Every structure is written in structure tokens, then in C-alpha cells.
Amino acid sequence: MSAARADRLAERLRERELDWLLVTDLVNVRYLSGFTGTNGVCVVGSEGRLFLTDFRYVERAKAEVADFERLRGKQDLLGDAAERLSGRVGFEDQHMSVRTYERLKGLLPEGVELNPAGGLVEELRAVKEPEELRAMREAASLADDMYEYIRERGLVGRSEREVAVDVEREMRARGAEDPSFPSIIAAGPNGALPHATPGDRQIGPDTLVIMDMGCRVDGYCSDCTRTFATGSLSDEMREVYELVLAAQQESLAAVRAGAECSSVDAVARDRIAAAGHGDEFGHGLGHGVGLEIHEGPRLAQSAEGELVSGNVVTVEPGVYVPGAFGVRIEDLAVVTDDGSEVLSHFPKELVTVGA
Ligand code: ZN
Ligand code: ZN
Question: What is the CA 305 to chain-centroid distance, rounded?
Fold first, then answer.
């Protein structure tokens, strides 16, 4: 797998007339080489593929990194990598600190020209391979199981934090490496904060609870949100729930290869605005997911470009009524030529979870 990815990257480098790309972002290093340690650098060009790590990871690299010439460097790998570079060199300017950049410039051999080339590996990562989709399906299915688990365990009378701890322990017990991000459990007025942190207050009856969580399997993330009722709801809560559900379903139906990222966002945004809640949907419709929980492509008003087959994106409109409650519904979907394959399967019709 890594050979094919490095080949595709080398092709991109040729188009940009770059001799080498210095890959320093660890997620990109993992994607290209398979290396899961915390200190590694790849140097990729048409003339070669080098992987550098320090003595702590030599054994791990032997097991994980094929198709690259493996080199052992000092703990600070920058000097060892710099020695190997020549000609026009791209570097990951979206990740490299100004300090590291200045240091790199001082370490390079005479005549090497540095060019900002951030995003090249990310562009490859945005289109998933079958092997990656397999991991993501599994991660999404595990998240579905967690919603089923919560439905059985109940919400009322437990604190948000208790539920978060419980669900994260359970997903690990069932095979997740980790939660793909800190789980969000936001009841009642907390639900009006899109990125609420689970607190110690008990979850009450007759309100809405937003649960947003995901699992990591083989390095790949899933991401799913459901909003549960904990009893009987006000008319306003029901109305908003139905509105968000309709916006979610309609925008999800607009996902397909060739759809403009901003147009997919607009489907949900227009629907919500038409119902008078436009100001209460203050974030983008969705984001790409993969080795990272947020990656390309974005579905947002300001997003450029079109979806392509093999992208994996979330579709997650929300309405947040300040001081009162919030509703968000989020699915994870693989973009296909004629639509999408939705990876989240837990029901989206309002589910009531009591004590
Ligand atoms: Zn989410
Ligand atoms: Zn998300």
C-alpha cells in the first residue's frame, strides 16, 4: 500500500516540478509509510523514498515500514533528512513551525531551494482506498453499537461526564483503539454549545441530549451524532428536531461525486434558514474524516471544489437555541459516483432514552 501512495505522491511532485517532498507531519508520515511511532520523517521523490527515525523506533519501523529505505538518524531528524535533499524541495508549510523552518534552512546543503508544498499528502488522503474504508466501516459500526448501548443504559439521572466515561470505556472494551475525539454529551441548555464539554450535572427528563462521538479502528476515525429525547418534549423542541432531521436527510441526499462542497452545505443551510433558524446553525455542514477526525474535504459555505468518489465526509447540520437546547444529527458517508454509502446506521427518528 505504501508503495502505491508514495508513487502517487511522486507523480504530484513531478507536476509541481519538485525533486523531493520533506514529510514531517506524523499523520502524513503514517499514511505514506505505515509508521505509527512518534518520531519519523519521510523524504519522497522520483529518485527515492527514505524513511528516518531514531534508535527508539528502529525495530518498530522494521515491522511497519516497507517500500522505503529505512535510515536511523539522531533524535532530531531534521539534520539527517536535510543532508539527503537536493534541488527543488517541497516542505509541509501547513505544519512546520517558523522556528523549525529557519533551522531547516540552516541545515540544507548548498543550492537547495525550499518551496511551500503543504497539502499534497492531504489531497491523497482525502480519497480513501478500500482498505481504509474497511477500517472506517468498522469504526462506524462500533459507534452504532455504542448508541445502542446508551439506549439500554439510560441517560436520565446520570451526569454527562459519567455517560462519556462509560461509553468510552465500553468502546475500548469492544475493540476501539480510542475514541476518535473526546465524546460530547450535552443535555438541555448545554446542547446549545456545539462543542460542549461533558459536565457533572445530572441529565434531566423531558429534554434533548446531543451525543457526538466516534471510535478509532486501525488508526481510522468514525464520527456520529444523535440527539436523544429524555421524555416528553416541548413543541419547539420537536419542531427543531424535525427541521434538523429534514435538513440532514436532504443534504445527505445531495452528496455525490461532482457535487460542489458549498452547494451541499447550502441544501441544509437554506432549509434551516427558511424555517427562521439560520442564525442558530453557526458551523459548516461537515468535514472529511480519516486518520484524523477533521480532514479534507470540507462541506461549508466557504468551501471550494467538488466532492470526488472515495471522499468520506460527515453531514451534520445543527440548530442551537441559546440557553435552551440544541439538536445535531450527523452521519458519516462515503462519496460514490451516484450518491453515497452511509456508514452510520443508528436510527435518526427521535429516540427516547429515559432512566
Ligand atoms: Zn461528530
Ligand atoms: Zn463531525
Answer: 18
